Amino acid sequence: MKSWRPLTENELKSFLAIVFNMGLIRKSSIEEYWNSSLPSQASHWFKKVMSRNRFQNILKFLYVSDYSRNVPRQHPAYDPASRFRPLLSFMNKQFCRFIVPKKEVCVDETLMATKGHNVMRQYIPSKAAKFGIKFWMLCESATGYILQMSVYRGRHFDPVPAGQLQGTLRKNRPMPNTIRNANPTPDNPVYMRKGKMLCAAFRDMDGKNQYEC
Questions:
Q1: Is 94 strand, coil or helix?
Q2: Could you please report the per-residue DSSP string of 98-123?
Q3: Is residue 213 within 8 Å of 199, Cβ to Cβ?
Q4: 79, 19: one domain
Q5: Statement to judge: residues 183 and 144 lie in one domain
Q6: What pLDDT digit, counting tens, does each position of 119-175 carry?
Q7: CA R_g for the chain
Q8: What are the PiggyBac transposable element-derived protein domain coordinates in residue numbering (predicted)?
Q9: How far is Cα 72 from Cα 80, in angstroms, rounded to an integer?
Q10: Sign of the four-CA dihedral 68, 133, 91, 25
Q11: Model-level pTM?
């Protein structure tokens, strides 16, 4: 490609800054971030940081894994997430460097929207995107800071281990007196474990006490 030139470290940082800001400033297409025909809707910062053609060239050719080392689809060790696995591993290492989480953490799923067709693509009607790649995220409850994230590659690659319970058992179960009579505060939930059963009393965002097992 005649218009391509080697990518510098500063350009990569600028590219990532643009990507992050695109998540904060939503527009209908990439081209609209550089469109200044309507002054009231123009975003001049993007044009100052990098030209649109340069951004799209980097977006087209940027890879975070060495394709020559990826095993083929027919191989038993094939990983459909191999294209971004090095980046995911690097991010997980960095997440743990900058924060010591409080005791309240949560695990939740998120869907990264994609129009591509691959074995990892999931359909979750409750999500805004509905179609995309699902990630499990371990987050600090108070701040939402991501501590670790894991990609779900589909049933074929990530089957549920036999005999392990998935999901949550809720209020229809008898509560231990320690939990039923607890008066938790936003900063001090009450936990109780018996065998493999964990019960908790906590204060939700609306100020109501919740009791679950």
A1: helix
A2: S----S-EEEEEEEEE-----TTEEE
A3: yes
A4: no
A5: no
A6: 888 888 888 878 899 999 999 888 889 999 999 988 888 776 655 545 555 555 667
A7: 23
A8: 2-159
A9: 10
A10: positive
A11: 0.68
The answer as to whether 25 is a domain residue is yes
Give phi and psi for 94, each to the nearest 5.
-70, -35
Domain boundary among the residues 18, 37, 61 is at 61
Percentage with pLDDT > 70 across the chain: 91
Q: How far apart are the first and last CA of the chain?
A: 59
- Nearest CA among 193, 207, 210, 202 for reference residue 141: 202
Q: Is residue 91 part of a domain?
A: yes
d(CA 136, CA 138): 7
Can you read off the two tokens belonging to residue 105?
A: 């953490």
Q: 50 and 31 in one domain?
A: yes
Give the range of the structural domain holding residue 202, as residue numbers without chain letter: 177-212
Residue 106, CA distances (Å) to 36, 96, 140, 187, 195 in order: 43, 15, 6, 14, 21
- Rounded Cα distance, 45 and 47, in Å: 5
- Same domain (yes/no): 72, 53: no
